[in-house]
Each structure stands twice: as structure tokens, then as C-alpha cells.
Amino acid sequence: MSLSKKQQKLVEQLEKRVEMCREFMNDWLLFNQILSAYPNPGANKAQLENQFLKIKSKLAREHKVLKDTLQTDYNIDQNLMNIVAGATSLENIHVQSEVAVKKLQTEWHRAFISINETLGSLEDKKARGEAGEKVFLGLVPVAGEGGGGGLSPAAKKNLLIAGVVVAVFVFLWFFPTTHAMYADAINKFFGTTLK
């Protein structure tokens, strides 16, 4: 089945979103690998700390872009960035009690599952798009396409003002005491003979 240009653009955007989510998931896995390698005997702790800071920075940047790009398709655990922010250093994590470390691992796993769910949803949407089904990209319009209808806030305000003016005019026109006054003003201004 041959896809239209619009459908091809949609599939290309979905492919980009799938790749972004997959890269984020791989970086999330690396975060855990570094975290888990730290307490091992013979581990180069200074090198791991450096890698840990780099992956935390990358995750923070990727998370913001991913969330802004996916919009309504974004279903990643809201606690994910709290995990990243709370993990100040590997040393600080591993000097905590074993219960605290297990709690962090459980929170990491919950976030990992939500990343996989989001990735699976995007892959499914992409496959349906490739099959020619109508799929939507959340709130983001397809590049080169219109915004999808609706009125801008300024247009809504102007429409509301025009509606109020028309409603007031209609009300006053049918109210007997003001009808004569407006009819006379219109007749004088336009040179007509309204009654």
C-alpha cells in the first residue's frame, strides 16, 4: 500500500519519536548499569562518578526534549526526574542504608517500565501509520500542515466582542423606545427610510 505524502510525514515523525524514546531508554539503562557497578570490588570509582554525572546531565536534557516532543504520547513515570535529581553522587547513594538503595532501584525499575510502555505505544502507532491507518501525533501538528482548525485566542476574543455588539444591537432594535431612536439615527446617517 502506497502512503500519501501526509501519511509519509506522519510515519517519519513517529520514527523520530521512536528513536528518541529508544535512546532515552538506553541512557536510562546506562544510568542503572553505572549505579550497579559502583559497589563492585575493583571498580574505578572516579571514572564511574564522572560517567554518572554525564549520564544524569544527558538524561535531564533528553527528558525535557522528549516530553515536549511527545506531548500527549508522553506516559513516562513523573518520578523519573526526581530519581535523577536525588541521585547526587554514587558515593552518596551507596553510603545510604540497603533499604534506601533498594527503594531507589524499585523506583528506577518503575520508571523503566513506563519508558518501555511509552516506547511500545509509539512503535504501535508507527506500525499502524505505516499500514495506512489514521493516527494522531498528540498536540503537535505534522510539519508543513495547518494547525488542525480551531480559533486562536485573539480570534475568539474578537468573535465574542462582535457577538456581544450584535446581541446588544438586536436587543435595542426590538425594544420599542430605542428602536425609533436607532432607526432615526440610521436614516440620517445613511439617508434611508427605516421604520
Structure description:
This protein has 195 residues and is mainly alpha-helical. The protein folds into two domains: 126 residues, Up-down Bundle (Four Helix Bundle (Hemerythrin (Met), subunit A)); 38 residues, no CATH class. 72% of the residues lie in helices and 0% in strands. The protein contains seven helices and no strands. Helix 1 runs antiparallel to helix 2 and helix 1 packs antiparallel against helix 5. The protein is elongated and about 100 Å long. About 5% of the residues have low confidence.
Helix share, percent: over 70%
Distance between the termini: 66 Å
Biggest sheet statistics: none
Any guess at the CATH architecture of the largest domain? Up-down Bundle
Number of DSSP strand runs:
0
Q: β content, as a range?
A: under 5%
Give the helices and strands as they follow along the chain: HHHHHHH
Output the number of helix runs: 7
CATH first level of the largest domain: which class?
Mainly Alpha
Question: What is the assigned CATH homologous superfamily of the largest domain?
Answer: Flagellar protein FliS
Q: Summarize model confidence as the mean pLDDT.
A: 85
Gyration radius, to the nearest Å? 30 Å
Can you give keywords for this protein?
195 residues; 7 helices; elongated; mainly alpha; Four Helix Bundle (Hemerythrin (Met), subunit A)
Helices and strands, with pairings:
Elements: H1 5-37, H2 45-70, H3 80-86, H4 90-94, H5 98-130, H6 153-174, H7 176-190
